[in-house]
Design goal:
334 residues; alpha/beta; 7-stranded mixed β-sheet
Length: 334
């Protein structure tokens, strides 16, 4: 059994050698970078990590996990005893997962199952592990499709800023043939994965007595240390500067929330990353900004919180899935 009180992650080798209890299949959606098809492996077993890294890992994959938000999602799973296989869609143009409801016609389902076949061929001792999926954006829709496959059935899924494909919802969910599902959604997302849209799906789950939960993410309320707290490589002086610039140029409301979507209004680039900085600014601060310009840009989107990657609520979602799984197992339902 997994302890209820999980200590803070350690980077020690002893920590990574813990017993693997669960398999988490992470399905990256359009929020990820332009990887076509890569699979990387983050494990709680040093032996398995080292054994697979030379086969599956690409530098581009590591770059996707370079931000702390993405690292913490994987970290939440690892802290709870998961080993994580990470997949990327095959579409070279959009990087989105196929939303073909027929799993026999879905090219990404075929890729996914072939990838697992190869993995379990090399590591047959892991095939009996319970499997869970975490799908973001288009990966969430794909997860909702993959959940009906019988070759490698899953015991539960987390759908992040995404929805269940309607063809799946009104066929398999309504027939009670579907795994436990947790939605993580952003309150400012009123278009694609809106709270209203998710609640309609959730009601069907409730009616069919399928375990489900929704975990909303609020926009980030900024303080002068938020950038440093969430991205430790950004020093405190830089964090103070970024906060006060957003405040000075009226990007924060009275409650310190971003008022504008950085993807749609772009003047922040001029006052956070000016071509010429004030000479009175410390040069180490300017250097720190330049070094982490990409991270700052991505985190601004997370701060606004409409359809972005955020680690918030991921630990709760993984923990909820495990509790549901263990309860069902005790009741001999799985």
């Amino acid at each position: 059994m997994i302890d209820q009180d999980v200590p803070k992650r350690s980077r020690s080798k002893n920590r990574r050698r813990r017993v693997i209890r669960y398999l988490s299949l992470v399905i990256l959606g359009a929020l990820s970078s332009s990887i076509t098809f890569l699979i990387t492996f983050y494990a709680t077993s040093e032996f398995i990590f080292d054994g697979l890294s030379s086969i599956f890992v690409s530098q581009s994959t590591y770059e996707w996990f370079h931000t702390t938000e993405r690292q913490r999602i994987i970290g939440a799973a690892i802290d709870l005893g998961f080993t994580c296989l990470v997949f990327q869609a095959t579409d070279k143009l959009t990087n989105c997962w196929s939303n073909e409801a027929d799993i026999y016609q879905n090219k990404d389902v075929h890729m996914f199952t072939k990838g697992l076949e190869g993995f379990f061929k090399d590591h047959p001792e892991l095939i009996l592990l319970p499997r869970f999926t975490f799908g973001s954006s288009s990966g969430g829709i794909f997860s909702s499709i993959l959940a009906i496959n019988q070759q490698y059935p899953i015991q539960g899924q987390i759908i992040f800023t995404s929805i269940i494909l309607p063809e799946i919802l009104y066929t398999y969910v309504q027939n009670r043939s579907y795994p436990a599902t947790a939605w993580i959604h952003m309150l400012r997302d009123i278009e694609f994965a809106s709270e209203q849209r998710i609640n309609v799906s959730k009601q069907i789950f409730i009616e069919q007595k399928i375990p489900c939960i929704t975990l909303p993410i609020e926009p980030v309320q900024l303080t002068s240390t938020t950038f440093h707290d969430r991205i430790p490589e950004i020093n405190r002086d830089t964090s103070h500067f970024l906060y006060h610039q957003l405040q000075r140029y009226r990007w924060l409301n009275q409650h310190a929330y971003l008022m504008y979507n950085p993807r749609r209004k772009f003047d922040w680039q001029g006052f956070l990353f000016p071509s010429v900085y004030n000479r009175t600014l410390d040069q180490q601060l300017v250097k720190n900004i330049h070094q982490h310009k990409t991270h700052i840009t991505e985190f601004l989107n997370t701060i606004y919180g409409e359809h972005e990657i955020s680690y918030e609520r991921s630990f709760e979602a993984f923990k909820w899935l495990l509790d549901i799984y263990k309860t069902a197992k005790t009741s001999n339902q799985i």
